Predict the structure.
Amino acid sequence: MAKLILLTLPIGNSEDISLRAKNALETGKYFFAEDTRTFRSFINLLGVNGTGKEILSFHDNQKIDRTKKLLEILNSGEDVYVVSEAGSPIVSDPAYPLVKFALSEGFEVDTLPGVSSVLVALELSGLPPYPFTFHGFIPRDNKGEFFKNLMSGTHIFFESPLRAEKSLLEMTNLYPESQFAIARELTKKFQTVYRFVGKDFKSEDVVYKGEFVILINLDKGQKSGDFSKVSSLCREYMEGKGGIKLLSKIFSEILNEDAKKIYQSLTRKD
């Protein structure tokens, strides 16, 4: 039976291509690529002859048309390879709908694994490797609430160099005692890793160019709240200046939870 095969490409250094992946590039006939021009340039760089290969573009706006084409090829008995511009085609890239569709149609899914910027960044960060959570790209909206709701462990994010500084300022202000790492341009000539405690972050030390991976480790029981703020709120409460709302704010700072949710929990009648 034909297979849908996820093929991981290098994230920067072309020499990181695996022997299995290179063999597939040489012998495979059907490829779904996130960017066909980038893919053709890459196989040319490897010396792979692209003649006779059918290379089809695939991105988020083509899901319906491409699933139909995928089914047509798989039903003909031919394997289909899926690649992104770099790294795994399913990590923050658009391959998942194809995987889900192929499985739903009864076809096998296989992988030719390779380098992942998530794991490379984790290896270089110096942060505890487990548990870790990969979040993909940092959300553009409600970042403050998103960061506050992070649990214990090491958290890994992708971020655009255009938004990295703002995101880092928010994160380091919220978690001044936490360990951070920034990994940029991984496996490339200008690979750089910055390691620091949140309160020591200096934006001017970072070069905001290239691909960014941001990591933060939150220790179990570590609190993001400002101790002086907690003390001030506690004094107000002890002086009788506030009720459940003020108590909710205190717990919010200590537990790093949303004050509204805490208030609702304290006032809920079971």
Remarks:
- Residues 227-267 form one domain.
- The two ends are 56 Å apart (CA to CA).
